[in-house]
Design brief:
Strands 1, 2, 3, 4, 5 and 6 form a six-stranded parallel β-sheet that branches. It is built from five helices and six strands; from the N terminus they run E-H-E-H-E-H-E-H-E-E-H. By secondary structure, the protein is of the alpha/beta class.
């Protein structure tokens, strides 16, 4: 099972990136999942009307080669950020009918439904199947200078376990 873990934040101090890093580690070490790490800070992004860059073409190939995906996102005006939107618009050919999960870091408790935009895009555009467990983490759950609080660590472990288990069953 090849899983693409995509950290969409362009912020150097991103909490969603830290969520992705932890799930990537759990998938590899605890569940023996073959993961591919993508940090959008390393991709030269352009809107779809300007065409793909070389790094966007390489990402599109990686998307097509992957069996499933973990998307890490922050909340930006109650939806996904512009970098992730550019990737969704230009690099997702080949992800039809595949499995995905969402890790979200947010500044407040009231934007938990913001992940639904990503769900709608993936399910309606590419008929993808979502893990019915979204990790939604607040600033207090992931201190800047420390490990996730125990409750968040437990949610990340459950996410990784369920993602690996269901992902394998869908590939069988």
């Amino acid at each position: 099972m090849r899983t693409l873990v995509l950290s969409s934040s362009l912020n150097p101090a991103s909490r969603s990136r830290r969520l992705c890093q932890r799930v990537d580690e759990l998938l590899r070490t605890e569940h023996e999942v073959d993961t591919r790490w993508v940090d959008l800070r390393d991709i030269e992004l352009r809107p779809c009307h300007l065409g793909k860059t070389d790094s966007m073409r390489a990402l599109a190939d990686l998307v097509a080669e992957s069996d499933n995906y973990v998307f890490g996102m922050g909340v930006h005006c109650y939806t996904v950020n512009d970098g992730l939107k550019m990737v969704l618009d230009t690099c997702m050919k080949g992800c039809e009918d595949k499995f995905f999960g969402i890790l979200c870091a947010a500044g407040g408790e009231k934007s938990y439904l913001s992940t639904m935009h990503l769900t709608q895009m993936c399910m309606n555009e590419w008929r993808m199947i979502q893990l019915p467990r979204v990790v939604y983490a607040l600033e207090r759950d992931l201190p800047e200078d420390g490990a996730p609080v125990p409750a968040l660590e437990e949610r990340l472990a459950l996410f990784a376990r369920d993602f690996a288990t269901i992902g394998r069953k869908l590939l069988a």
